[in-house]
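Backbone shape codes
____________________
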Amino acid sequence: MAMIAGKTRLIATMALSSLLLACVPTIQTVYLTPQVQGKVVLFTPGESANFSPLSGIAAYYPSSPEAATLSNQQGEFLLEASSTVEASLLMPGHSLNYYPVTVETETFSYTVLAQASTKMLDLETVKLSSVVVSDELDGKQLLADSGPNALKYCNLNSVKQLRREQAVHQLLKQYYPAPEQLEQPVLGYIKDQQQQTLMWLEYVKRSCNWEDEDGYPRYRDMKDARKYFAKLETSLLN
């Protein structure tokens, strides 16, 4: 019994030591943003609807516009990650976050979301494609319905971006109602656009404030917004 008790204490001590070591800060590189391998394509509606690459399009993180990169003749760009050196725990909790990337043409700009770990101790690379509609290059706004009045309690810039992504998704769905029958790269463009819209939906949800000035919940607005979010998510997944 004494031998068993001794082994138990030894195991407990080793486990505690491992936990304590994991909580000791170490100096290391922490990535503030992921690396993004992106592609910007132009969608031209009409009888001969088609996709074509967009070159010379700027992409950058809003926090560092000086590090902007341009898309090449194939519409592809590589946006490097930003990093810093700091004291970090060896075992950080893992969660995912959204990193906005500005895409800028000569006539307008919009934002795409890159999803990566909240705290990156290793370089993470996100691959995505983004669709620009030809009307947008002509200076025309492409926005879906504004949704319920309750959305005024969410970040309005994010709501507008969601409406833009939703409008692009709806347009692609109109021209390609059965995407599962498509081949690459068109299938990839449509799926990436769907994913972008879903991510913006989640991004908007996180931005909403459902408390009034006195700290009481706005139940009616919350209900209206949730109904809208659920309906939009269902339409995106169908």
The first helix runs from residue 2 to 22.
